[in-house]
Structure formats: structure tokens, C-alpha cells
Amino acid sequence: MKLVVGLGNPEKRHENTRHNIGFEVLDEIARTHRAGFGSGKGNFLYAKILHRGEPVILLKPMTYMNLSGHAVVAAMQFYKIGIADILVVCDDLNIPLGSIRLRSKGSAGGQNGLKHIIQCLGRGDFARLRIGIAPAHPLGSYSSFVLGKFSSEERKTIDEILPRCVDAALDFASNGIDHAMNHFNVKPV
């Protein structure tokens, strides 16, 4: 069984913000598999799908970004999923808009959700799919930017890359992180 975690913030006011791109990817996977999210045995929403014979749990922490690790640990314990079977999907300010990067391990890179997951697990050797949201201009406030909604031009780019993010996450579920990295790490659109 695989666990695909999309990072974001709960509440309607956070919908369609840059920080919630992880939720968007999971919503699209659930939509294409005709699955709905329900409350889990922890502070998270989950949907269970079957992809190419592989059971996959889609997880949306309801803890807010900075406390995502609590939901991830709770789901890992409840579903008995090991660290090698986790993929975390999140935004990344250090990657150009329209790019995605899959990695088998690494640091938080300034992403607070990843930082808390690493802290709670005590290690950073889990797969992640980072989706570039880097601005075209220098920022005064990072938090205002990531909590802001995409501009119409940015939204077009995100809508173009979203299907590729879905395919990358599902490829991880079927074939593992090495295969997914070889096929889906891309340059900006």
C-alpha cells in the first residue's frame, strides 16, 4: 500500500492558494478515480483508490501546513505504511513555476510542511514531489505570497502542469520513486 500526502491548509479561504497545490493534486487524483475524501483516524481526510492493482491512500492533513507531520505519522501508524511507501506532494518557492521535481529524500528546503514531517519522523528519506511556484519577481513577504491565490497567468501554467503531477504521483504508486524521477522531472513549461 502507498500513501500519497498532499500538503495544504484546511478552510475554504485557503482553496486555490499556492500553498495548497498538494491538495489540488490529490483532489484531481480522487476525481479521476471517482473517490471521495472522508475523515480519517487522525486529523486528516483520506480517500482510498486502487491504481493498477496497487492500493493507494490519498491523505490531506487538516492540521495546517506547519503541523503536517502529526497527520502523516497518524496515517502511517493506522495503515501500517513504511517510509519507503510515502510520497509527499507540496509547493516549492525555489523551483520555477511550471516545473516539478521528484526526489527520493532530502531536506525541507524551506517548506514548513516538509520540515514538520521530517521533524516528526526523525528522518528525511521519504519521496517528495515538489511543484514550482517561484515568483517572477523578488518577494517582500514569503508567507503572503504562498498564502495568496495564483494570478490568471500562473493559473494557466498550473493547469497545464497539474495532469503531469497526477501522473507522476500515480507512477510513484505503481513503479516507485526511481522510475517516477526518471520519467517526470521536467523543466519549466
Q: Radius of gyration from the CA trace?
A: 15 Å
Extended strand count: 7
Distance linking N and C termini: 32 Å
| Whole-number tally of structural domains | 1
**Overall geometric form:** globular
CATH architecture: 3-Layer(aba) Sandwich
Beta-strand residue fraction:
15-25%
Strand order of the largest sheet: 2-3-4-1-5-7-6
SSE run: EHEEEHEEHEHHH
Q: What does the oligomeric state look like here?
A: single chain
Structural class: alpha/beta
Helical segment count: 6
The average pLDDT score comes to 92
Q: What's the CATH superfamily, by name?
A: Peptidyl-tRNA hydrolase
Unreliable stretches: none
- Can you summarize the main beta sheet? 7 strands, mixed
Describe the model:
By secondary structure, this protein is α/β, with parallel strands linked by helices. The protein has one domain (2-184): Rossmann fold (3-Layer(aba) Sandwich). It is 38% helix and 24% strand. The chain is built from six helices and seven strands, in the order βαβββαββαβααα. The chain has helices at residues 21-32, 68-79, 112-121, 142-146, 152-175, 177-184, and strands spanning 2-6, 38-39, 44-51, 54-61, 86-96, 100-103, 127-134. It has a seven-stranded mixed sheet, with helices on both faces. A hairpin with a 4-residue loop joins strand 2 (38-39) and strand 3 (44-51). Helix 1 crosses helix 5 (152-175), helix 2 (68-79) crosses helix 3 (112-121) and helix 5 (152-175) runs antiparallel to helix 6.
Structure described in brief:
By secondary structure, the protein is α/β, with parallel strands linked by helices.
